[in-house]
Amino acid sequence: MEKAAASPFTHSHLVLDNGNIMFQCSSDADEWPWLALDPFDPIVVQTINYWASVEASAARGTWDPTKWSALTQTEWVCGKSGVGHATHGVADKIGQESNPGFRMSFYDGDEALVYRMSGAGVVFQTRDFESWRDKAKQKIVPPPTVDEFQYAPAAAVGVAMQSQSFLSPMIDHDTPSAQALITKENGFPPAHPFLSGSGDHVNSTHLADVARQFANLLRGGEKRFIKGGKMTFKRYVELGLPFRIELTNEEPSRKALSMTIQQADRLCTTIELKY
Q1: Distance separating alpha carbons of residues 199 and 188, to the nearest angstrom
Q2: Which residues are registered as beta bridge partners of 231?
Q3: SS3 for 275?
Q4: How far is residue 61's CA from residue 170's CA, in Å, rounded to a whole number?
Q5: pLDDT tens, 165-178?
Q6: Model's pTM, two decimal places?
Q7: Fewest beta carbons within 10 Å, which of 66, 72, 100, 175?
Q8: CB-based contacts of 56: which residues, under 8 Å, 6+ apart?
Q9: pLDDT of 155-164, one tens digit each?
C-alpha cells in the first residue's frame, strides 16, 4: 500500500448501473513525472495499475485505507505501437472486499487502446502488519551498500542514468542471471524520479523495471518493445538486501521471457514479459 498522492491520478469517476466505473486520467507531469516515459514502459504501466485500481475502488466505496493490502498477481496487454498516454478508462466491477480484484481498460485521446490490465490482491484483515514486517526486516543480514555493489552500465540495462541501474553485470553459468539491489536511496525520489511506493519493501513497479532491465541485459543492451506481461507475487522482496533474477525460459521466437526473483534462497516473484 503506497502513501496517498497530493492529487489523484484518476478523476471524474462515474459509477455506472452495472458497477463499472468510467474515469479520466491526469496529464500533470509535475505530479506524475513518469508521464515523461514511453506509455508502455513497465514503470508507467505498474504505477497506473496501482493508483487507478485503488482510486476506482475508493470511488465505488470498497477501498478501506485503514487496512494494509498487497498485490498477489497482475497482468497487462498493451495496444498498438504509437498510442499516447492514457487519458481515460473504465474499471470493471470484479472481486470481493476481502480478496480484491480489478480489470481496467485505458484509452488515449484518439480513443485508441493503451492497455488492458487486471490483477488480484489480499487484504490483511487480522494480521498486525507493522509488527509482522518489523520482525521480517530484523532478520536481514547487513547487506552491501549501493557504493559497494557493482551495478551494470546504464546502457546495458536501458536506463538514462547510471543511478537508475538496479542490476549487476550478467552472471552466465548454467542459467543466465543477475544480482539486484534496490534501497531506499536509489529506488525512490530524488535519486530515481519515476519510482514511488510505501518504502516498506521492493514493490511491483520496481520489480517490473528490474525485469525490463534484465531483458535488455540478456541482449547486450538491445532494447525491446514490451507488449505485455504477467507477475505473480509470493513473498515480499526486502529493500536493501540483494536479490537474484534468473531466466527460466525464452521462447524460440524470442517473443517472451520468463524469469524468477529469489531473495535469501526463497522464491519471491515470477515474471513473464511479452514482445
Answers
A1: 8
A2: 74, 271
A3: coil
A4: 46
A5: 999 999 987 889 99
A6: 0.87
A7: 66
A8: 10, 13, 21, 23, 91, 102, 104
A9: 999 998 999 9
